[in-house]
Amino acid sequence: MDSKIVNLRSKLEVYKAVSGGGNFSNCPVREVIQGVSGKWSSLLMMALAEQPYRFGELRRLVPDISQRMLTQTLYDLQRDGYVHREVFPTKPPSVEYSLTDLGHSMFGALHQLILWAELNHDAVRGARADFDAAQG
Amino acid sequence: MDSKIVNLRSKLEVYKAVSGGGNFSNCPVREVIQGVSGKWSSLLMMALAEQPYRFGELRRLVPDISQRMLTQTLYDLQRDGYVHREVFPTKPPSVEYSLTDLGHSMFGALHQLILWAELNHDAVRGARADFDAAQG
DNA sequence: TAGTGCTGGTCTCTTTTTGAGACCACCACT
DNA sequence: AGTGGTGGTCTCAAAAAGAGACCAGCACTA
Predict the structure, then answer these.
(1) Is the CB of residue B56 less than 8 Å away from at least one CB of chain A?
(2) B42 touches A: beta carbon within 8 Å
(3) Which of A112, A128, A133, B30 has the most CB within a 10 Å radius?
(4) Is residue B26 within 8 angstroms of chain A, CB to CB?
(5) Which of B132, B27, B35 is nearest to B79 (CA)?
(6) In the prediction, which pLDDT does A12 show?
(7) Phi and psi at residue B92, in whole multiples of 5°?
(8) Class for domain A38-135, per CATH?
């Protein structure tokens, strides 16, 4: 067990103590994590970390997102301060989305998870296949 | 812009090249991230990184999860190889959930995001409040 | 001996979230 | 005059999640 995990263990104790009931219901980390935990949030963060994109470009970049969810996810990311939305007065008007400083900062952490996923996605797929084979 | 982000930029170029259509639809990272992106997944990973827990303990630890979603999320985490499920022949039988090696490894990466959330949740809340105040 | 509680779930029903696709105004270009 | 691209919104259907009843089996208690 490495030091990070030991460190977290003590953090968890703190949460449980603070929340009073010995549970996670008031954990302030939850709302932040849930903001990133949407189906499309991390994917859009990945795209915008690369460079700013316009609405239509994002739609083409992530073809299986519905226009409705693209609108809504970008709105939520903007609301949480990760994404900046700028309208340019072209004809027709174009809208550019980019990461804020807070967004770049958050992406630095999210990036670790993405790197892990890159390295281990075959292990996860393997586990999934084994499990399905064993359980039916 | 730090080196991590520059590094990722090149990674993204690779994905777009590989997928053929210049988009994210085949990105292998997506399925891994989505496995962690469930509403309850990261919370249960946090709990189990602390120590193994039994079903009822987890339910008490996360009081606002329904029994149905607790069952299902644990099942999914087990299927992806992050969680080990062990039944003890007590009366009545008890079931213990713990992280596998893969689960601990993944949590190491998720941990970065959790630490970020700890440090920045007030900034996110502030952004949210500002946005709501401005937009109505 | 009957009642109560705890175990880890499943089943059904309702509510919320998401997806699919039509529709919109505006303007440029052909 | 028709077509296409802009960034959306609106409606309706499908999928996912939440709420809560129910279950068998055994221990403990009254």
Answers:
(1) no
(2) yes
(3) B30
(4) no
(5) B35
(6) 47
(7) -70, 160
(8) mainly alpha
Distance B29 CA to C18 C1' (A): 22
| CB-CB neighbors (< 8 A) of A26 in chain B | none
* Per-residue confidence (pLDDT) for residue B22, from 0 to 100: 62
Region B63-80: mean pLDDT is: 96
Predicted local distance difference test score (pLDDT) of residue A1: 41
Q: Each residue of B68-106: b (16+ CB within 10 Å) or e?
A: eebeebbebbbbbbbbbeeeeeeeeeeeebebbebbbbb
Domain B38-131 of CATH type 2.40.40.20? no
Report the complex ipTM: 0.87
pLDDT reading at A7 higher than 50? no
Are B24 and B15 spatial neighbours (Cβ–Cβ below 8 Å)? yes
> Please, which positions of strand C sit below 7 A from a protein CB?
5-12, 18-22, 25-28
Domain ranges of chain B: 1-29, 38-131
Suggest the residue from B37, B73, B128 to mutate for an interface test with chain A (most A CBs closer than 10 A). B37
pLDDT exceeds cutoff 80 at B59: yes
CB nearest to B63's CB, from A25, A41, A79: A25
Check if A95 contacts B (Cβ < 8 Å).
no
**pLDDT tier for residue B131 given thresholds of 50, 70 and 90:** very high
Q: Tell me which of A25, A26, A50, A83 to substitute to probe the interface with B (most B C-beta atoms closer than 10 Å).
A: A50
Confidence label for B25 from pLDDT (cuts 50, 70 and 90): confident
**The pLDDT value given to residue A28:** 87
CB-based contacts of A47, cutoff 8 Å, min separation 6: A53, A58, A61, A62, B12, B24
- The answer on pLDDT for B37 being more than 80 is yes
B67 closest-nt by C1' vs CA: C9
